[in-house]
Amino acid sequence: MLDEKSRQSALDALRVLDTPPDERVDRITRLAQQIFGVPMVSVNLLDRDRQWRKSEIGLGVREVPRTDAFCDATIAQTGTFVIEDAAQDAKWASNPFVLGDPHLRFYAGHPLQAPGGEHIGTLCMLDTKPGSLDESQRDLLKDLALWVQTELAQQQELDHAAVVQRALAPRDLPQPAGFTVTAGSAPAGAVSGDFHDVRLLGDQLRITLADVMGKGVGAGIIASAVRASMRTAPERSLLRTVREIDSILEHDVGDLHMFVTLFCADLDTRTGQVSYVDGGHSLTFILRTDGTWDHLNSTGLPLAMGLNESHRLGTVQLNPGDALMSCSDGLLDLLDLEDPWGQVEQTLAEFGIEGAVEEALRRAVAAKAADDVTVVVVRRDS
């Protein structure tokens, strides 16, 4: 016996109703049609009084009343539900979908479960001719249904991870007197393996940009952990902070080969002196007022590589009019490889420091960049 209240709550919690088509689910629908050779396949979610289709082939409409839906009977089953010839089945012969369009005869569906086990929908296939499924075909339909429900649950996990990550991103960038700070990130997917952080600790502006090698939720979790570690015990020196995080990462995830490139710096807002540690990132530069570029070289290898190489502290002076710029390697994919510096200088001239960051992120979104793009710019105005 279905607990309709619990079932509906589980469906609502997935937050998938009335969402756009999803290629990951559509791919399973197409595969089912090809394997079983039927004209109609659908991924259905049973809402309060309707059957809504997340994906469909051959049906042409996204929802129908739940009252007459074959799938309403399927969610009450523990396994695959098959109607070989609805026109000859006393229970279904008078169904409006049998008597009228699309004149169904054959139906086979398997329940879709929410992470808690509640039956929230079905993967079903239909035909206008009678049909049947043998045991191996039933098992295959079950496997495809499990694939669908995994994709639906994974999307919920991605959404949750994205919310957590957005909550950890800096809301308001500090703007110390005499400086302009601009930063932003455009994730390639729902969750980014990049992160940036800018904090003002007394007279010190701490700037961090890191890139976890990898994509998806795993990289996002590690990025969030590194960011949290950077914020813990702010009284630690920059060098000690990086070395301790490196040691922790190597111990916890070193065997996963998900190393982290990182640039972090303390900028003295009174003098413009920058002390920095670069863990294999090597994508930080200073644009001088005369148009020249200074590259801040790496002072150590990426974190979690386990090669026992100690990071070192570098120093550089940020003079009035100079700008410190750091980016993740995703930005490189958007640049003209024949003249990257010229393209950056042209963008800066056209949009200014603040507008250039927004333009870089806009291009990343427009180009559907394959990698996360993060940019941090700090200019000393006076």
Q: Helix and strand layout, with pairings?
A:
Elements: H1 4-14, H2 23-36, E1 40-46, E2 50-57, E3 63-65, H3 70-74, E4 81-83, H4 96-99, E5 106-113, E6 119-127, H5 135-168, E7 179-186, E8 194-201, E9 204-212, H6 216-231, H7 238-253, E10 260-268, E11 273-279, E12 284-287, E13 293-295, E14 314-317, E15 323-327, H8 340-366, E16 373-380
Antiparallel strand pairs: 1-2, 1-6, 2-3, 4-5, 5-6, 7-16, 8-9, 9-10, 10-11, 11-14, 12-13, 12-15, 15-16
Structural account:
By secondary structure, the chain is of the alpha+beta class. It folds into 2 domains: 4-162, Beta-Lactamase; 172-380, PPM-type phosphatase domain (Phosphatase 2c, domain 1). 33% of the residues lie in helices and 27% in strands. The chain has 8 helices and 16 strands. The strands form 3 sheets. The protein has a 6-stranded antiparallel β-sheet. A hairpin with a 5-residue loop joins strand 2 (50-57) and strand 3. The mean pLDDT is 87. This is Serine phosphatase. Pfam families: GAF, SpoIIE. Residues 176-380 form the PPM-type phosphatase domain.
